[in-house]
Amino acid sequence: MEINIKKEVYGTMDENILKLTEALQGQGFGVLTRINFHEKIKEKTGKEISPVIILGVCIPQLAYDAYLINSDASSLLPCNAVIRQVSSGVFSIELTKPSSLLNILGDEKILKIGEDADRRLQKVLDHLDGPEQNLFSSEYKESYLGPQ
């Protein structure tokens, strides 16, 4: 079972954070936390990794419903939305599938909540690939990657 759904995108870190945040909000997700993971790794270990931002996201109503079914769900929230730099101008958007986490609780009702959130997260990725997003146009890609 895969725990993430992923998509490669182009641009800058800040542009991708903004586009992802807007797409998440469009599906009812709120951003609860932001961790500059690469900075924390550098701070705590002195080692460098490629830039990675982790956003803690959830849909409050779904989180509440899951909590009412099984309070252990709170240990699995919020879900992570990761923006990871792959190379110059290329990023991987990696969204945790809530169903993969909630599945461990072994309850069909709570799993359905996770599957609802999975569908919404897939729409988030689909939106990022939409034609209205000039961030992903061939001209934009070429500005970062050169002619394809």
Please tell me about this protein's structure.
The chain has one domain (4-143): TT1751-like domain (TATA-Binding Protein, 2-Layer Sandwich). The radius of gyration is 16 Å and the shape is globular. It contains six helices and five strands, in the order E-H-E-H-E-H-E-E-H-H-H. Helices cover 45% and strands 25% of the residues. With 148 residues, it is an alpha+beta fold. The relative contact order is 0.21.
**Total helical elements:** 6
Class in CATH?
A: Alpha Beta
Query: Structural class of the helix and strand makeup?
Result: alpha+beta
Query: How would the global form be characterised?
Result: globular
Q: Compute the average pLDDT.
A: 89
Strand content: 25-35%
Count all strands and give the number: 5
- Any idea what the radius of gyration is? 16 Å
Total domain units: 1
CATH superfamily: TT1751-like domain
- Which regions have little confidence, pLDDT < 50, spanning 5+ residues? 130-141
Q: Supply the CATH architecture.
A: 2-Layer Sandwich
CATH topology: TATA-Binding Protein
Largest sheet: 5 strands, antiparallel
Cross-sheet strand order for the largest sheet = 1-5-4-3-2
Order of helices and strands: EHEHEHEEHHH
Helix content: 40-55%
Distance between the termini: 33 Å
